[in-house]
């Protein structure tokens, strides 16, 4: 008998979403990730949960409608991670005309008629906070509703929920060889130790490494793939309002600028075909300048590449030839008599990730029984509250732990939801939470991340489970590294 029903290679959004879905349907699951959860393409998404407004121009009505439904599902099951936001599109007469934008927004709302989010409107930006940061003569902008997401935490909480339902989540575990018979026999180097694992079925969810893992580890023909790179830049905050700006750049592409962390702005994204090692993907000087130019076309405060605090890049696989708007990704099942099933999944965006995983797991119903689909209705850890109550939960946290400032309480609730109690416990003062690493991060939070969320190194904490790396000085990072080496 095999050790597991399903083994998953890859701990990005596809891999952890499948692990959660499959574990909740009663399968014995193991997930093997050679690095940290979400350390590949998942950490480089543009942080949007949306239906893709420009998809309507391509007449992709079905895909837009399905994505809008998934937007509402994610908002319902992860109200701490997925937050409604108002998006503003300043009207630039040389690009899409106002009537066209208005028509697109009306159709967009019609496809999402049950969302419950505020409807679109026309703004006179000369008398609205949206216009404060804009160049003149932008007199008009359209606003509409979509959502933003903490993509890295979405990956981690999928894994946390999978583990709570019995899945074995192994980070720092690199699969070096696989033998395929009636079951899969995997050899992994798990944090320095050799481990042999058997599983009835296997999922290759290794993102940009999909082709190389298929050929060198699984020793099966790789699908015909292309690799694409997606990149964003982070700069100091360019506007005070909480809106997300959508720019119509000169080439017709929509570029988004959104609040990021507490005092920064995320601008992106740009994408292109990528060749090379996905582990060292990086933005080019030309791409950085492109995003700076897009922002400078609209904002009063001008930026240059020297103002960029951080670039964020990741690579992922798509079916070749690369399709710029392939939102759904692909899931390819290989099953032959006498050979254990292999599912290869790659591509796709954050918005459709839950639905993509649900369909992928359902492919295995032909091989063994499982319980019905469930992930559309069950909240992720910490998310058992209505999204309209987010600010109320922040107030409750501040009332219970009176030493929390407003920004700190909001960050903690946005990251952990109702599970913030597992970190703060009965603390009466900040000193009760152990050593401090900068103004916000405490020993109690770091211990929780190491114990419950597989954080092993400072970057796991500072960039994927939070964005505190943007503000933490090097001296505090050194202290954090020493603490994580001996947390007890």
Low-confidence stretches: none
Cα-based radius of gyration, to the nearest Å: 22 Å
Strand content: 25-35%
Number of helices: 13
How many β-strands, per DSSP? 19
Mean pLDDT: 92
Q: What is the rounded distance between the termini? A: 39 Å
- Choose one word for the global shape: globular
- Largest pleated sheet: 9 strands, mixed
Structural class call reads alpha+beta
Report helical residue fraction. 25-40%
Report on this model:
- This protein is of the alpha+beta class and 488 residues long.
- Helix content is 29%, strand content 26%.
- It contains 13 helices and 19 strands.
- It has helices at 13-24, 61-77, 98-111, 151-164, 210-218, 285-296, 353-362, 390-400, 406-416, 421-424, 443-452, 458-464, 474-485; strands spanning 4-9, 29-33, 48-49, 82-90, 121-124, 140-149, 168-171, 173-180, 184-190, 193-204, 225-236, 244-248, 254-260, 264-273, 310-319, 330-334, 342-346, 436-437, 441-442.
- Strands 3, 4, 5, 6, 11, 12, 13, 14 and 15 form a nine-stranded mixed β-sheet that branches.
- Helix 1 (13-24) runs parallel beside helix 4, helix 1 packs across helix 7 (353-362) and helix 8 packs across helix 9.
- The chain is globular and about 70 Å long.
- The mean pLDDT is 92.
């Amino acid at each position: 008998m095999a050790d597991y029903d399903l083994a998953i290679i890859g701990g990005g959004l596809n891999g952890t979403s499948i692990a959660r879905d499959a574990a909740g349907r009663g399968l014995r699951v193991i997930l093997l990730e050679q690095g940290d959860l979400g350390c590949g393409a998942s950490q480089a998404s543009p942080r949007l949960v949306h239906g893709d407004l420009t998809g309507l121009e391509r007449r992709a009505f079905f895909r837009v409608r399905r994505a809008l439904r998934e937007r509402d599902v994610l908002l319902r099951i992860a109200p701490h991670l997925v937050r409604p936001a108002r998006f503003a599109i300043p009207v630039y007469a040389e690009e899409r005309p106002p009537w066209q934008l208005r028509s697109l927004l009306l159709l967009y709302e019609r496809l999402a008629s049950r969302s419950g989010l505020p409807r679109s409107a026309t703004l006179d930006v000369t008398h609205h906070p949206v216009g404060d940061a804009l160049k003149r003569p932008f007199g008009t902008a359209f606003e509409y509703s979509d959502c933003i997401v903490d993509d890295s935490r979405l990956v981690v909480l999928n894994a946390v929920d999978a583990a709570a339902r019995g899945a074995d989540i192994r980070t720092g575990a690199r699969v070096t060889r696989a033998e395929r018979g009636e079951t899969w026999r995997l050899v992994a180097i798990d944090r320095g130790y050799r481990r042999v694992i058997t599983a009835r079925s296997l999922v290759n969810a290794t993102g940009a490494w999909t082709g190389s893992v298929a050929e060198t580890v699984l020793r099966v023909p790789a699908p015909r793939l292309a690799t694409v790179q997606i990149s964003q830049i982070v700069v100091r905050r360019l506007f005070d309002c909480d809106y997300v700006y959508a720019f119509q750049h000169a080439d017709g592409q929509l570029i988004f600028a959104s609040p990021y962390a507490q005092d920064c702005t995320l601008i992106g994204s740009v994408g292109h075909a990528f060749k090379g090692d996905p582990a060292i993907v990086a933005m080019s000087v030309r791409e950085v300048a492109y995003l700076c130019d897009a922002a400078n076309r609209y904002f009063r405060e001008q930026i240059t590449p020297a103002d960029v605090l951080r670039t964020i890049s990741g690579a992922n696989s798509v079916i070749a030839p690369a399709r710029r708007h392939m939102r759904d990704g692909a899931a390819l099942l290989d099953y032959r008599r006498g050979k254990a099933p292999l599912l290869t999944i790659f591509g796709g965006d954050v918005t459709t990730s839950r639905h993509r995983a649900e369909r992928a797991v359902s492919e295995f119903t032909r091989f063994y029984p499982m319980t019905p689909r469930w992930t559309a209705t069950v909240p992720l850890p910490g998310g058992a509250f209505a999204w309209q109550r987010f600010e109320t939960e922040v107030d409750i946290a501040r009332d219970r732990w009176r030493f929390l400032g407003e920004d700190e309480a909001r960050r903690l609730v946005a990251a952990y939801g109702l599970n913030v109690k597992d970190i703060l416990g009965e603390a009466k003062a900040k000193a009760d939470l152990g050593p401090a690493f900068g103004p916000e991060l405490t020993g109690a939070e770091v211990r929780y991340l190491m114990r419950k969320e597989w954080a092993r190194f400072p970057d796991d904490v500072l960039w994927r489970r939070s964005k505190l790396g943007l503000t933490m000085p090097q001296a505090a990072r050194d202290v954090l590294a020493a603490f994580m080496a001996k947390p007890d």
